[in-house]
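Appendix B, record 7
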Amino acid sequence: MDIASIRPGRLTTREEMKILFGGGTQAGIISSTTTPNILIYVDHDSGKKYGYEDGWLDEEDELGPVFEYTGHGKSGDQTFLGTRGSGNKAVLYHADPPGRTLRVFMATGKVPGEGSSAKQQRYVGEFALDREHPYTVREATDNRGVKRCIIVFRLRPSGDYERLPQDVISRAENTEARPVLARVAATRLDEPKLTQPKQKRASESRRAAQPSLIADLRQAVLREDYLNELIGQGHDIFAFQIRIAETSKILKTDLYDASTHELYAIRGDNSREEVRAAVGQLKDLVRHIKPAKPKMITLLPKRPQDDLISLLHTEGIDLIYQDSTGYTRCPSN
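Structure tokens (predicted):
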């Protein structure tokens, strides 16, 4: 058996893949020590115990299908840092240096044979992280009932793949907006820095696995600072995780202030594109929030043009922006 003979749909085992690719047999994320591959093992039964479901989204976008995979870590918040986050870090930076491939396998029953306890693995295909949105942060409940933040990677096929109906994430029966930890509002987590040689190799193009735009950084800092501001004032702050009926996609809001019944859209820049994105985000998500009709607020790192403030106010949205003295609010009425 050679790597070229591994085609989507092939049934195999972890032991066979260890021999072929190198690496171990136990973890969900296995970085090969001898070939430029990272093996990802998906087990529906195991995932459900820890509050998540991996697989294909049933909706495609202009770039094609998306396979969602929850990162490593069965208890506590998942991370990219330290030993606990080493597997997640390997997936996040699989494109640095270029050439490494993510290969996904799906657990499919037991290996044939009397007394066998090993699970059979079906090869799904080759993947890379979504360039624009490599991962999202969500809340899940582990097998002890403890709420935690998980990392959900968004994988795009980069070679041949198999997309079976049983591998598609189940659709929601009803639309549900569930209050979740405020930390879930983060679009990015603390990510370890790459070594300088890797940075130089990737300097000519944006890394496929790192959302590194300045606006992303400003948004993360602004969200954290304002969250601490509200908590310091004694406000009850969380976010919403929203499942839409008849879809498998999960949406999430930015911060929600339960003390004042206010829903926030937080952007990292005061440009027209960012303000318009905030308007669309709020108008889309506010319909699903209960209690109904929260006050909509856009939070920006600095004051935008008067025309954009007018746009927000026309839509009934308050503006809060950061300035040298703290935060200034421009009410819509």
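Remarks on this record: The domain at 1-166 is CATH 2.30.280.10 (PUA domain-like). The helical segments are 14-21, 44-49, 86-92, 196-201, 214-232, 272-285, 306-314.
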